[in-house]
């Protein structure tokens, strides 16, 4: 079961849709509470905590633009998959630099691909907000 708290109605709908998509893709069916929060740490846009076996809480910075919100959610859902498959524990990353953690390498590596697959499945890939911004 997926529960969404805070944020706008459209954030609720998109977040629930993304969570269902990613869980189905990974063949996992945990209980997930997604909370849109005012995260004040400029560095942090999201987080995932395992509450109990099969129960997770994901926090998402509520001021994010839609695409960034959904890629952040996809990133955090990769962590849910990692917990569900025993690839990640609450203590498995201690003493390791954030960017060197295998869990973060996978989550960062998969977040955009999951977003693109979700957008294609929902016939949204032609929308301007789903297009990747080019810098340079």
Please describe what this structure looks like.
This protein has 136 residues and is of the alpha/beta class. The chain has a single domain (2-124), classed as Zincin-like (2-Layer Sandwich). The chain contains three helices and four strands, in the order βαβββαα. The chain has helices at 9-26, 66-84, 102-121; strands at residues 2-5, 31-37, 46-52, 55-61. It has a four-stranded mixed beta sheet with strand order 1-2-4-3, with helices on one face. A hairpin with a 2-residue loop joins strand 3 (46-52) and strand 4. Helix 1 (9-26) runs parallel beside helix 2 and helix 2 (66-84) crosses helix 3 (102-121). The radius of gyration is 14 Å and the shape is globular. It starts with a strand and ends in a 15-residue tail after the last helix.
Overview in brief:
The chain is an alpha/beta fold. It has helices spanning 9-26, 66-84, 102-121; strands at 2-5, 31-37, 46-52, 55-61. The protein has a single domain, classed as 2-Layer Sandwich (Zincin-like).
Kindly provide the radius of gyration, computed on alpha-carbon positions and rounded to a whole number of angstroms: 14 Å
Return the structural class.
Answer: alpha/beta
CATH architecture: 2-Layer Sandwich
Q: Name the helicity range.
A: 40-55%
Percent range for β-strand residues: 15-25%
The number of domains is: 1
Determine the mean pLDDT: 91
Termini distance?
42 Å
What top-tier CATH class fits best?
A: Alpha Beta
Q: Write out the strand line-up for the largest beta sheet, numbering strands in chain order.
A: 1-2-4-3
Give the biggest sheet. 4 strands, mixed
Order of helices and strands: EHEEEHH
C-alpha geometry: globular
What is the CATH topology classification name? Zincin-like
Poorly predicted segments: none
